[in-house]
Design goal:
mainly alpha, 4 helices, membrane, DUF2304 domain-containing protein, DUF2304
Length: about 140
């Protein structure tokens, strides 16, 4: 009777630390460079049209530089991935990109919350001024 339990296949090659070392694929490296170029082109276009604040543009420029560094120096990424215990360099690359985007999302959420609060305060202030103006115009004693 055959066993019904499934066993994962063993990895083919282990490094001295026990984790599988994989090379970063050429496809991933090209994808990183294309992503960086697309980011740079989009940011340059938006800065030229004054559609983005400089502090936001700087974040995206730093992200593009990080993508290029990861693509041009795969040995660095492979070494970092192995030392941090990642199964492959691509997993590490995805984690870095996701972490940077999550950090930006958190920053945007904080900024949106502050802006919503400010809009609420300004709306209340305008409503009070309008009420005061309305009362002054309709006050017969003046």
């Amino acid at each position: 009777m055959p066993s019904s339990t499934w066993h994962a296949p063993a990895p083919r090659s282990f490094s001295s630390s026990g984790f599988v070392r994989r090379q970063m694929s050429l496809y991933l490296r090209i994808l990183l460079i294309l992503g960086a170029l697309l980011t740079l082109w989009t940011i340059a276009k938006r800065v030229k049209r004054n559609k983005i604040l400089m502090q936001d543009a700087i974040f995206w420029l730093v992200l593009a530089v990080v993508l290029v560094i990861m693509a041009l120096f795969p040995g660095l990424i492979i070494t970092l991935a192995a030392r941090l215990g990642f199964y492959s360099a691509s997993n590490f690359v995805f984690l870095v990109v996701i972490a940077l985007i999550l950090a930006k999302e958190f920053s945007n959420s904080s900024e949106i919350s502050m802006l919503r609060h400010k809009v609420e305060e300004l709306t209340q202030e305008i409503a009070l001024r309008d009420l005061q103006d309305h009362e002054e115009r309709n006050d017969p004693s003046r």
